[in-house]
């Protein structure tokens, strides 16, 4: 066996650069890195050695670098991913939230935090947390619950098993998620004689599990018996590339489709059977068919509470829940009848099994009622002096959009409003991180989307709160010449949580700056702030000015930021559904007591 002598870090990078996807691309497109003593000498030297064939990028914050990597993998539908390396201690822990984000959204990312000396020579090294009762514990153990695969590399040759397991996890459709290889810094620098064969290019095929025939039969029988079925399209539809099969299946059977946040754009918004967004931020049309449905057919969904209205949405007592999912965990959730398989293959085979069966036609006219109610909300305002609403901002962005536009967001008012109001013309036009709804995903995420699809027109919608939480990758975008548009809606605080607070009987408190414990109301100049990081920026004061600013976006190279003040109070009153937010059982506030009564009543709908 011929061998090659390399450090463990050199071997890791050489191995990672040799792993491919089915299209013949490197599966990991490159590595984001912020160095410290925990990775600069070992991993840093190794990355430098291959920088011309496998790129390293420098970000501003370990969490946001990882957000970029995760958004990239989401937009690539998990066919490619990125690595992120950090130093030990604070650098490493900055990535824990991002790991959880990837875990919740079932997205691949390879995290390589440095770790303390395996040899323990300098104990405690700078930034080492000492567990007085467990010598093997380091802060990187925080990654265990938020990783799909975790390993601590304390000897070089452990990479021979750890790296293939890492790739297996990231490319496994059912087990897909973040991998953390916690790399002791002395081990990174240690040399070992590696088998040359370990570095041979390898293609990782994403498996497409076929349905179990018994499960398929059972689900086909249930569909044949259904009078009012509905399909809930989740993110798995996109990961499986099953949009075409979903349309064929729904059309041949005549079943209405509703979409989750992750599933939105599975069908074009104006497809006759797309009844719109489902659940808490759903359309009246979608929720009406769900309330009545006798068969709920989830396709690639985790059934999170925003989809199910905390399990109070499906009001038909005789309903059956079916879940088509590549992961058995999701296929059997909440007592569902499972069809554990790849969504594309499952829909193809189900359709074949059902022959020319047609379900009774869904109710007509529901979509017309919905659009008649909400379309006026997104129209340009008649009164140019009134503070614009977020709904009007969405309307302006929608009118400026085209087939190549990708609208993206993660937290705040916008996800709910976009779910209700955005009209996606095609798959992949809507990128919402709503598994973790992590404030601070937006700008870093927009970079990841643009790196995945440079030809697309990426529009990042972000509130002032989310922008304040994490914005510094804007500077990275400027430095790398990454062009996308950011629309900052400045409503001077946490508008959506303020509304939630009021909705649960609370006093307005600590959300908007107006109700915060401060002595000076802020007038944060977001345009100047973003400009200082190298973005082209403009502050607009009306929807007309917003439209004009959006129309200029093609002429801007690098990040383009448009800031607009909006009203923190209005949200779309139409559609939607209750969800469970615990209201205090006792309170001196009458409003809280009223809200508690409503809460107790609504919970009776849960099943
Ligand atoms: C990291 C993180 N912290 C807290 C929250 C809870 N949270 C959700 S939205 C929100 C406020 C968002 O404010 P902003 O971005 O200004 O949006 P707005 O609702 O005002 O439009 C908060 C605090 C979260 N989702 N993520
Ligand atoms: Mg805000």
For this entry, give a set of tags.
607 residues, alpha/beta, six-stranded parallel β-sheet, 24 helices, 22 strands, 36% helix, globular, binds thiamine diphosphate, binds magnesium ion
Protein model, in words:
With about 600 residues, the protein is of the alpha/beta class. About 35% of the residues lie in helices and about 20% in strands. The strands form five sheets. The protein has a six-stranded parallel β-sheet, sandwiched between helices. Strands 13-12-11-14-15-16 form a six-stranded parallel β-sheet, sandwiched between helices. Strands 18-17-19-20-22-21 form a six-stranded parallel β-sheet, sandwiched between helices. Helix 10 (about 245-255) runs parallel beside helix 14 and helix 16 packs parallel to helix 23 (about 545-550). The longest helix has 14 residues, at about 60-75. The N and C termini lie far apart (about 60 Å). Bound molecules: thiamine diphosphate and magnesium ion. Thiamine diphosphate binds next to helix 19 and helix 21.
Shape: globular
Instruction: Indicate the percent of residues in helices.
Output: 25-40%
Structural class: alpha/beta
Low confidence ranges: none
Query: Which molecules are bound besides the chains?
Result: thiamine diphosphate, magnesium ion
Indicate the mean pLDDT: 98
Widest sheet: strand ordering: 4-3-5-6-8-7
Tally of strands? 22
| Proportion of beta-strand residues | 15-25%
> What characterizes the major β-sheet?
6 strands, parallel
Number of helical runs?
24
Termini Cα gap: 61 Å
Rg calc:
25 Å
């Amino acid at each position: 066996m011929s061998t090659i002598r390399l450090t463990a870090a050199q071997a890791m990078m050489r191995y990672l650069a040799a792993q491919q996807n089915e299209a013949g691309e490197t599966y990991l497109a490159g590595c984001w890195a912020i160095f410290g003593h925990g990775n600069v000498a070992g991993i840093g030297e190794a990355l430098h050695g291959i920088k011309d064939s496998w790129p390293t990028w420098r970000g501003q914050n370990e969490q946001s670098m990882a957000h970029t990597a995760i958004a990239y993998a989401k937009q690539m539908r998990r066919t490619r991913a990125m690595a992120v390396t950090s130093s030990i201690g604070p650098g490493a822990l900055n990535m824990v939230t991002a790991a959880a984000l990837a875990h919740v959204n079932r997205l691949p990312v390879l995290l390589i935090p440095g770790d303390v000396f395996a040899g323990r020579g300098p104990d405690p090294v700078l930034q080492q947390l000492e567990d007085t009762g467990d010598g093997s514990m380091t802060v990187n153990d925080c990654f265990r619950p938020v990783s799909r695969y975790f390993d601590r590399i304390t000897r070089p040759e452990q990479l021979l098993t750890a790296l293939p397991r890492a790739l297996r996890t990231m490319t496994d459709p059912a087990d897909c998620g973040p991998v953390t290889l916690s790399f002791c810094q002395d081990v990174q620098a240690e040399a070992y004689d590696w088998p040359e064969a370990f570095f041979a290019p390898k293609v990782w095929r994403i498996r497409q599990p076929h349905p179990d025939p018994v499960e398929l039969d059972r689900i086909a029988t249930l569909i044949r018996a259904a009078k009012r079925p509905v399909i809930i399209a989740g993110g798995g539809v996109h990961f499986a590339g099953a949009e075409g099969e979903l349309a064929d299946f729904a059309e041949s059977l005549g079943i209405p489709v509703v979409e989750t946040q992750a599933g939105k754009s599975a069908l074009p918004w104006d497809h006759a059977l797309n009844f719109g967004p489902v659940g808490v931020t759903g359309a009246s049309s979608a929720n009406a068919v769900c309330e009545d449905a006798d068969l709920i057919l989830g396709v690639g969904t985790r059934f999170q509470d925003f989809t199910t209205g905390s399990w109070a949405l499906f009001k038909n007592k005789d309903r059956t829940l079916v879940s088509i999912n590549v992961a058995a965990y999701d296929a059997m959730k909440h007592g569902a009848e499972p069809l554990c398989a790849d969504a594309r293959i499952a829909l193809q085979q189900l359709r074949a099994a059902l022959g020319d069966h047609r379900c009774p036609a869904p109710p007509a006219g529901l979509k017309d009622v919905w659009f008649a109610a909400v379309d006026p909300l997104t129209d340009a305002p008649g009164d140019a002096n009134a503070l614009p609403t977020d709904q009007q901002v969405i309307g302006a962005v929608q009118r400026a959009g085209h087939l190549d536009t990708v609208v993206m967001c993660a937290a705040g008012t916008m996800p709910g409003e976009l779910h209700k109001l955005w009209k996606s013309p095609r798959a992949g036009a809507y990128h919402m991180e709503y598994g973790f709804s992590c404030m601070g995903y937006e700008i870093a995420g927009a970079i990841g989307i643009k790196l995945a699809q440079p030809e697309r027109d990426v529009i990042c919608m972000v509130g002032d709160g989310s922008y304040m939480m994490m914005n510094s990758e804007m500077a990275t975008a400027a430095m790398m010449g990454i062009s996308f548009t950011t629309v900052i809606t400045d409503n001077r605080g946490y508008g959506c949580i303020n509304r939630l607070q009021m909705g649960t009987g609370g006093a307005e408190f600590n959300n908007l700056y107006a109700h915060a414990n401060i002595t000076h109301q802020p007038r944060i100049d977001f345009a100047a702030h973003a400009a200082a990081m190298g973005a082209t920026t403009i502050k607009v004061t009306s929807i007309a000015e917003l439209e004009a600013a959006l129309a200029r976006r093609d002429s801007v190279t690098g990040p383009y930021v448009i800031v607009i003040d909006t009203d923190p109070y209005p949200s779309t009153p139409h559609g939607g559904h209750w969800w469970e937010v615990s209201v205090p059982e006792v309170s001196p506030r009458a409003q809280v007591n009223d809200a508690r009564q409503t809460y107790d009543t609504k919970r009776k709908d849960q099943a």
